[in-house]
Structures are given as structure tokens and as C-alpha cells.
Amino acid sequence: MFAYIVRRLLYAIPILIGVNLLTFTLFFVVNSPDDMAVSQLGDKYVTPEAIENWKQKNGYDKPLFLNPDAAGLTRLTDTIFFDKSVRLFAFDFGRSESGRDITSDVATRMWPSLAVALPTFIVGIGVNICVALMVVMFHGTRLDRGAVFLFVALMSISYLFYIIGGQFLVAKTWRLVPISGFHAEGQVWKFLILPVLVGVVAGIGAGARWYRTLFLEEANQDYVRTARAKGCSELTILFRHILPNALIPILTGVVVLIPSLFMGSLLIESFFGIPGLGSYMLDAINSQDFAIVRSMVFIGSILYILGLILTDISYTWADPRVRLS
Amino acid sequence: MLPPLAASTRAAALLFCSLLLAACTDGPWNNPNPPAPAGLVTYQSMISPAPPKHLDPAISYASDESLILMQIYEPPMGYHFLKRPYELIPLGAEDFPEITFLNARGEAIDPDQEEVAFSRYRLTVKADARYQPHPAFAVDDSGAPRYLFSDPQQGRSFRQISDFPHSGSRAVHANDYVYAIKRLADPFNGSPMLGFMAQYIVGMEEFSARLQDVEREGWLNLDQYPMEGLAVVDERRFDITIKGRYPQFSYWLAMHFFSPIPPEVDRFFHNPGFIDRNLTLDWWPVGSGPFMMVKNDPNSEIVLERNPNFRADYYPSEGAPGDAEAGLLDDAGKRLPLVDRAVFRLEKEVLSLWTKFLQGYYDRSGETHGNTNRVFDQAFVVGPDGVELSADMAGRDIGVEPDVKPGIYYYGFNMRDPVVGGYSEEKRKLRQALQIAFDTEEYLNIFYKGNGIAAHMPIPPGIPGFVEGEAGINPYVYDWVDGEARRKSIEHAQQLLVEAGYPNGRDARTGEPLKIFIDVQSQAISNTSMNWIDRAFARIGVQVEYRPADWNRTREKLLTGNTQIYSHGWLADYPDPENFLFLLFGPESPLICKCDGANNSNYESAEYDELFRRMRVMPPGAEREAIVAEMVDLLRKDAVWLYAFYPKDIYLNNSWVYNNKRHGISKNTLKYVRIDEALREQKRAEWNQPVIWPLYAAALLVIALLLPGIIAYRRRLRATARH
Q1: How confident is the model at residue B449 (pLDDT cuts 50, 70, 90)?
Q2: Closest approach of chain A CAs to the CA of B709, in angstroms?
Q3: CB within 8 Å: B11 and A127
Q4: DSSP letter, residue B218
Q5: Could you say which of B168, B478, B497, B680 has the lowest number of CB atoms within 10 Å?
Q6: At B18, is the pLDDT very low, low, confident or very high (cuts 50, 70, 90)?
């Protein structure tokens, strides 16, 4: 397994270079270094000298990909792409365009992200699995058909509707919890109730329907019929037999997300004022802060790759027949 | 194993218990604010929609950043809180600058007798001005700086300013102001003011060029590098010499760029390793103003506290007419500031911002929003009698303090465009016809809820040169009828189109319909707004096509003159007509200066430019006002802008907030705000009683959903085999 993991990690390097290249290209198709300078310096009295000065100070005074004035390998290395990308591989994220240390910001912001994402993830999976198993238990009945209809309806509603509806009803009209905010000191939980509730409810439709499909496939297997014939209760069949056998597809969708929980959610964090990495990314895009965008995409890619590796490892735990080689 | 029904019941119970637990906490359940320190009167406000990017007075140039900076720093000059038109007053300086005019040899001259080559501004620092307590001033027993490190490891335990156990303070010195101006010139700091100020301050350009070549490792002591236009006379007096005459320079002295920076503070923040922990002057301002920063978390909040070393400053005892009646002089003579602490929380979304304000968790709304229209959509509605407060606002005793912003938003013509540009009589008439067809008043009522005033000239109210009433109307677009300005008729616009060579909106020579192109920023205009503009011009047979783009592309088009009609805006830096009329000064055209010039209309008029050059260096007075009026007439005749309006700024204040007069230019008004804390607590408790029944309803719903399942399950278990 160790060799497998090392090999997968080595495969990650070209993927990360590709992701970097793509991010870099997409970003600079929309923004030029001059645009970034103006965005940072403000719209008034910005002289060409000030723009040049900003570019020089922040390392944007070089060509993007290829330096025609340089010789040899420096044609590639004396460029913005090389300067800004290579250091990422050493986990040196540098400073944002407004001068803040990105590593420090990421370290601070990942905890609020996790505080929302982790309970949403765990409670969400728990609720979805329980609801799906319950529906499977009544497969073919009116309850099942009604539940599927409800799932589709829940899936069809925009995520934004859940957020704004939740804020409007729970926080504004009923005044049960703060509408937004987050304070590390004191009663953090009261800021988490609503975003977690919204995240769980918004995910029930898609999640429960997906799990229902997985469980139904298993429910029709011979071993289930055998268990039922042996007189096992429905709950035992569902939790002891169907659930463990449906774990592989569940793990495929779930484990890959675990490392990404640190990255937070763009919408939830933005609307609920959670100072996490999701809103960090959104702010960076809005303020054309390439240093942050680049770093966040890089971190996101690494976490995703890590998630995929973890998924593979989890298969061996869920099904002893699986061997990584 | 836990049965699934029990698990979900547990989750529901946990949620229910959590909510019940909230009942055990102090105050309303929905209170988003952590408890404030006892005994300190705290002003609760917000920053929105993004946290400040820069708080270094040499770098920052955004109004939301000024809102924080101007409570902490004291530049030499400031503005009277209450008087209108805006009145300059000494702030960090003892008095107004003493101005001496010099000839090319540097000798003092009488400006009426001889041509002025230089102007020397002498300023005296207030005797009791002192800095806030700060570790940068802390010294050990031998008098040496306590926090001066040579290695990043030495200071690694300090992550915030509050982590430093020792602090100190000292009086503000003249050299601190000189040092601050040198920081503006230091290319390393990337100040947006460098290029502009170097045109005026003697030696600034050379100083900057010299520093560019200096090898630096760590802190560079700018005291070691003299700048020709700066001189420290003694501990409290210093001189700034500028090129020629520039009367508006006094206004610049009221901006945070000229706030004092002690060299030891600059040195402190250059300690090795500090920048990696965001310990920089850009994040931890150090000043001599009424407040000091105690917390800067750009992710959630900025907290200011009263500066215990703030000089003796008192609430003004005189103001503008009507201020006394409005209770704005009730605190006259009181020592400032009137609150002990101010918390600015980050709010990104309008719904939560607005809800918290209505719940009483914010004292004031409208302080930092760039997009007034968006935020106040929920505050105002257009009723049968015009714009009125929304139902949410009614009955809450919320004060509305509107003020016309010293700024202007406009759609300008590109005067180099072959269709709408040019200076022939036909082109003027074409533009005038378009101006008449665009009913600005209706547009503002519909899309800005009346929070704007149609502009007749580029100079907004409150700025010298603005003229009200019949004398102030644009006679090419309006008539004065029954004591008010009335837009000329559509028939008149159609007649102008005929004279311009576009009868019924078609080119008389080719028969082609006239189509105009408006460059808009994608996020700045709605579909309904575009539909309205379509209909407005359809009345004279003119078609409109929009070319939406993001700001970067729009800016690129402006720089290259590749636009026909564009949208833009300008907020005053200082209350002088020069700061508006330069928007149409020929050399400011991006196509002429090959820079990011302000004259995006590329308007060129030798007469206008000459008048501008004369007006720019004249002291205020009747002669200057006459020139301004002449310039305004030229702009009206040439019809350079399609339409323009002066936006209104609005404070919405809860009833416990006092001294709410909005100041269009100055941001250092927090020190005048007074809060009635008892009333605030009472109203918050009253407005935020939780509604409990949904919790019971939710519990019943869960049971109602589970019960049929449980019953069916139990029935199935008891059932006998049917097949």
C-alpha cells in the first residue's frame, strides 16, 4: 500500500502543475497585471509610474509565460508564472496583494470553515442515510413514492432559497438565532445552528435519494432475502446487512469530501458571515487578488487529491477483498 | 447499535435543547454581539461589504478605510463637524498654515507683485497632541527601545499588538509629519499619492528616485534622506514647500496621507518576522487621534477604543442654521470622544446587515456602503405621495439623516466619437436632444428611490460654485416655470434632432436609424433600467444598444477612447470646484496624457482649459466664482454629459444615537457620536422576543413524519406472511 500511496502522490505533481497553469491562464485572460495594480491602488490619480511601481514591488513586472529577453532556461524561469507557481510546491503561499501573509490567514480561517462544514457533513450523512433506509424499508408503498416526490422537490429548490428562507424565518421572523456572524470566543454554537440546519435540509433531497438508490440495489440481493427468511428484523437487515454492503459507493462520494471540508462553502460562509476559507476565496475573486486565488486553488487541488487517495484506502477497510497495488 | 429512529429523534432533541439552552444566556437569543466590556459605552457599527484592504495612511485610498483611519490619525487640517458649506479647521495643527510665497530664488515675495515660483506652508503641531499607548514607544530602563529585534525568533511569540506587555507614548513632533510625507515618496510603500503629489511638493520626485536605488534590508530610516521641499523648523514646526501656487493644498492637508508617522513606529513594524504575522502598519495603525485600534480581525471585526492620550478636544458650540433646533448643539463644550469604544463588524450580505439594524444590534446604517441604492432598497418604497419609509421602518423611531454627497454620477459622451462627439452646432443639438429625452428626475425616482438630485452642473451642492434656483438651471435642457426647473418638451428634443440632421431619429442623408451605444459596467445596471432607457430614447426615435463589460474592460475602453457613451462617477477629495471641473480639463483626457486621466469624455476646449488654469490657482472669491460660472456655461452649451446626478447619502439611526449630522467630506466624526445605552438595551429586549411556537411545531412535525413509519413498521413486524 505504501508504494501505491507514493505513486499516487507522484502522479499528483503533474496534476498540480496543470491546475496551476490553468488557473494562471484563466486569471490572466480576465485580468492583466495593470488591472490588478489599479484594483489595489484605487481609481483616483493612478499614474503609470504608480502602476509600474506596484507591479515591480509585487513581482508582476515580468512577462507571463516566456521571457524573450532572457537566455536559456531563464526564458521560462524569469516569468511571472514560474515565480508565482514554483513556491507553491514548497507550500510558500507568500502574501496577498494587500500585503497579508496567506499561510497565516489560511491557518486562521480553516477552523471556522471546519466548524460549519464538519457538523453539516456528519449530521447530513447521518440524516440522509437514516431517511434513505427508512424509505427503502417501505419500498413500493405510498410512503416510498411520497418520499421520492419530496426528495425531487427538495432537490429542485435553489440552495440560495434555503439560505435566505432560513434566515428570513428562523432569524428574522422568529428571532431564534442570530441571522449571521461568528465569534470564536463565547457561544460559537449559536452561530452554527442555522447554517448547519440549512446545509442539512438543503442536502436531504439529493442525498437521501442517492442513498435510497444504492440501498435498493442491495435490498434486492439474495443475501437480504436469506436474512429475511431467517427471521431477522427489518432494522437488523438494514443496518447489519444492507448498509455495510452499500459502503463502497457511499465511500466513493463521501471520503473524497473529507479533506475539502477545510475549504468551507462559498455560499454558506458568505451569507452567514462565517470568516472561513470559502468567503476568503470569494473575497479574493472579487478583489482580483491573484495570490490568494492561486493559493486556494492549489490547496483545494491537494486536498482533493488527498481525498481520492483516502477513498482508495477506505475501500480496503470497507471491503477486505480490495487490495491496492 | 443505535436504532435509526432514535438517532434522528436524538438529533432533533439536541437541536431543541440547544435552542432552549440559548434561553439561559443573557439577553435575546438572536444577539450576534459578544458581551461588551462593562462600563464602556460601545458604538456598534459595520463595515460592508468587504474588510479594509489597507490601513497604512500612505497607502489607503478608499472611503471605507478612511472611516477607520480617520478615527485614529489626525492630519494637520480637518473639517468643522456642523458648518456648511464645508469649513476647513486646524486638527493636528495649532492653526491654519502660514503661507509664504517665494520667487525662483527662494525669496519671500508679494504674490500680487511678482510671479510665484514656490509656496511654503508652515505648520505648527498642537502642543498637547500625543500618541496612543503602543509597544513601539516602549523603552527599557536604559531608555532603549524595548521591542527591537535582530532575529525573527526573538519576537515570534507576538502575534497581535495586545500580546506586547509593555507600551509607551510620546508627544507628536513636527518631524513625524515630515517623516509621513517621506513615506508617501518612498516607492517601496507604493502610495497612490506619489505620482500626484510629486507634481507639487518640491523635491518629492527626486527623493523617490533616490530611494529607488537604495539597497535596503529591514527598516530604512527616512530621516537620513533629506527632501528639498520639507524642513523641520523645531520640535513643533515644519515647512512644506510646493511648486507655484496651489491653494487646494490646504485641503490635501486634511487627508489621512498627511497624518504623522513616528519613525520608531515604522521601525517597530520592520522588526524581522513581524510581516509574516501580519504585524504591519498597514494592519495596525498608530495615531494621535481620538481612538486607537485594539483589534483588527479582517475576517470579522475591527475594534477601536478611546485613546487615553487624546488631546483636549471639545464638541463645537456653533453650527449651521437649524442645528441647534435639531439638538445638534446639545453636547456643545463636552470633552470628546463621547463613546468609549467602537466595534465595526464585517457584513457582506444586505439581508443580515439590514435585519441586524432593525433588531437594534447596529446603531447606525448607511455609514460604509458603496452602493446606497442597493442597501436602502429595503428602507424606502415609492408610494402614491413619492418616496416614503418602508413598513419595516415604521414605528421604530428610526431617524433618517440624508445629505447630498459631494459627488456626481454621470453618463458622458465621448467627444471624439464620430456620431455623438464633436463641437459643431449639429452635434451640440444632437447631444442636447438626447439630454432632454433622458428624464433624469423620473429615472432617479424609479431606480434610486429618489435618493439623488438631477445635476445642472458638475459642481454638487455644498461646494462653492454651486448655484441654486433659476440662476442655477441648465437652460439648454430646462425651463424655469412656476418657480421650478422643468425639463424641456420631447417636441423640443425632436426639433433639435431635426436641426442636428436626424429627423425622427433617422440620418437625413442615409435614412439609417440613429443608434447610440452605451458602455455599462455589467453589475452596475439592471435590465429594468436598460428597458427604461430604451423607452426614453424611443420617444425621439433613437435606438440604444448596450455594451456591458466588467470594470477592467470598461477602463480599457476609456483609456483608448473606444467608447461612445460611458458611465462614471466622482466623489470629492475636497470641497472645491476645481476637484470637479478638472473632470473635463483637456490635458486630463486619457488620450492626451496617455494616462488614467479623469477627462473620459476627451473634452477639449481651449477656452475652458484656459479658464481652468486661471481658476485653479486663484484664492476663493467673487472673481473665481465668475470664472467657474463661465466654465459651467461652456459645459452646458457643449452638452458634454448625457445626464448627471448628485447621489444622496443617508444615515439611518436608531433612536438612541445622537449627533448624526452626516459630513460629506470628513470621516472623523465618530468622536461626536453619543449613545443612550439604557434606551438601546430596552429597545433590543423589546424588539427581539423569540417566537417559540415554531419549535413546538417543528417537534410535532418530526413526530408526525415518524409516527406513520413507526406504526407501519410495527404492523409489518406483527404481520404474518402473505405470500
Answers
A1: confident
A2: 8
A3: yes
A4: S
A5: B168
A6: low
Q: Distance between CA A95 and CA B477 in Å, rounded?
A: 53
Rounded CA separation B568/B121 (Å) = 35
pLDDT over 80 (residue B11): no
Distance, in angstroms, between A117 CA and closest chain B CA?
17
Pairing of strands B515-521, B543-549: parallel
Query: Grid cell 473575497 — which residue?
Result: A283
Q: Tens digit of pLDDT for each residue in B185-205? A: 999 898 888 888 999 999 999
**% of chain B residues with pLDDT over 90:** 68
CB A263 within 8 A of CB A295: no
* Shortest Cα–Cα distance, A52 to chain B (Å): 10
What's the distance, CA B123 to chain centroid?
27
What is the SS3 assignment for B644?
strand
The C-alpha cell at A70 is 532572457
Q: Which of B281, B296, B287 is nearest to B342 (CA)?
A: B296
What strands, in cross-sheet order, belong to the sheet with B237-243? Answer: B98-102, B118-124, B237-243, B230-232
CA dist B321 and A16 (Å) reads 67
Confidence of residue B375 (pLDDT cuts 50, 70, 90): low
- In this predicted model, which residue has the larger pLDDT, B245 or B375? B245
**pLDDT value of position B5:** 44
Q: Which residues of B touch A170 (CB under 8 A)?
A: 694
Q: Are B671 and B337 in contact (CB under 8 A)?
A: yes
Nearest in space to B299 (alpha carbons), one of A271, A288, A273: A273
Tell me whether B11 touches chain A (CB under 8 Å): yes
Its pTM stands at: 0.86
Q: B94-113: buried (b, 16+ CB within 10 Å) or exposed (e) per residue?
A: eeebeebbbeeeeeebeeee
Q: By the CB < 8 Å criterion, does B352 face chain A?
A: yes
Q: Which of A130, A181, A271 has the CB atom closest to B4's CB atom?
A: A130
Say which residue the cell 417559540 belongs to.
B692
pLDDT 10s digits, B598-615: 999 999 999 999 999 999
Confidence of residue B371 (pLDDT cuts 50, 70, 90): very low
- In this prediction, residue B8 has a pLDDT band, given cuts at 50, 70 and 90, of very low
Rounded CA gap, B134 and A47, in Å? Answer: 35
Q: Which residues pair with B575 in a beta bridge?
A: none
Nearest CA in chain A to B11: A123
pLDDT band at A266 (very low <50, low <70, confident <90, very high): confident
Interface of B with A in 269-298 (CB under 8 A): 275-278, 280, 282-283, 297-298
Distances (CA, A) of B550 to A110, A299, B521, B560: 31, 28, 5, 16
Specify whether the CB–CB gap between B371 and B647 falls below 8 A. no
**What's the gap in Å between the CA of A45 and the closest CA on chain B?**
6
Contact B25 A187 (CB under 8 A): yes
pLDDT of B25 above 60 = no
Confidence (pLDDT) at B4: 46
d(CA B577, CA B554): 27
Would you state the pLDDT for residue B51? 85
Q: What percent of the residues of chain B are helix, what percent strand, and what percent coil, each to the nearest 5?
A: 35, 20, 45
* Alpha carbon distances (Å) from B531 to A243, B25, B528: 57, 52, 5
Chain B residues in contact with A53 by the CB 8 A cut-off are 187, 190, 194
Average pLDDT, chain B: 90
Q: Which of B71, B82, B98 is nearest to B259 (CA)?
A: B71
DSSP B461-507: TTSTT---SGGGS-TTTEEEETTEEEEPPHHHHHHHHHHHT-GGGB-
Which one of A45, A133, A174 has the shortest CB-CB distance to B192? A45
